[in-house]
From TrEMBL:
GO molecular function, one term: arylformamidase activity
Signal peptide boundaries: none
Gene Ontology terms: biological process: L-tryptophan catabolic process to kynurenine
InterPro entries per the UniProt record, alphabetical: KFase/CYL, KFase_sf
Name of the protein in question: Cyclase
């Protein structure tokens, strides 16, 4: 079974405060031009998206510099709520190359103001533990893994651990083994929208 962990991307998709607005315009009409076409303008960190190291790290890698194997792997689901209890997180088996997905429940208020005002941050102790375990991707059902000045971004991205934000449907993975596929557009920049899919038995 495949589970879509991505939000829809359109002009109503919430954006992080200060980020560019999404614009989708018709550039060709089937009845007039013989085909449909659209112009799409989006920020690189809108909707379900992936952060590359260059997003926050000087000289960091862009998305296109990662091998294709970097974007899929064994999923590790962890239900944290807003607490991110490091002791409980460390009880969950994880290996090098895993994709760790934190389910905080914030996706339940995705279209509310509280989604951007009341989200928790991953503690530095947890971020350093993920680096120690050599996971390849960390994903959250929140708008960000932290708050300004973004120390968690710098810890993870500084160790070439990719970040996925604005995930949804994570609860479906509770108690299940999964393989995660998260392939971003091959842009030579700091991030991109990504379609994240979990394959579960």
């Amino acid at each position: 079974m495949l589970v879509d962990l991505s939000v829809a991307l359109n002009e109503k998709t919430p954006i992080y405060p200060g980020d560019p607005k999404t614009k989708i315009k018709i550039s060709a009409v089937l009845e007039k031009d013989g085909y449909h076409d659209h112009y799409v303008s989006v920020g690189t960190h809108v909707g379900t998206h992936m952060d590359a190291p260059s997003h926050m790290i000087a000289g960091g890698k862009n998305l296109d510099e990662f091998p294709i194997e970097s974007f899929s792997g064994r999923g590790v689901y962890i239900q944290t709520g807003k607490n991110f209890d490091s002791g409980e997180i460390k009880k969950v088996p994880m290996n090098a190359g895993d994709i760790v997905l934190f389910h905080t429940g914030m996706s339940d208020v995705y279209h509310d103001k509280s989604y951007y005002d009341e989200y928790p941050a991953i503690p530095e102790e947890v971020a350093n533990y993920l680096v120690e375990k050599k996971v390849k991707i960390v994903g959250v059902d929140m708008c960000s893994v932290d708050h300004e000045p973004f120390p968690i971004h710098r810890i993870l991205l500084g160790n070439d651990i990719l970040i996925i934000e604005n995930l949804t449907n994570l609860g479906v993975l509770a108690g299940k083994e999964s393989t995660i596929y998260a392939f971003p557009i091959k842009l030579q920049i700091d991030g991109a929208p990504v379609r994240v899919v979990a394959e579960v038995p």
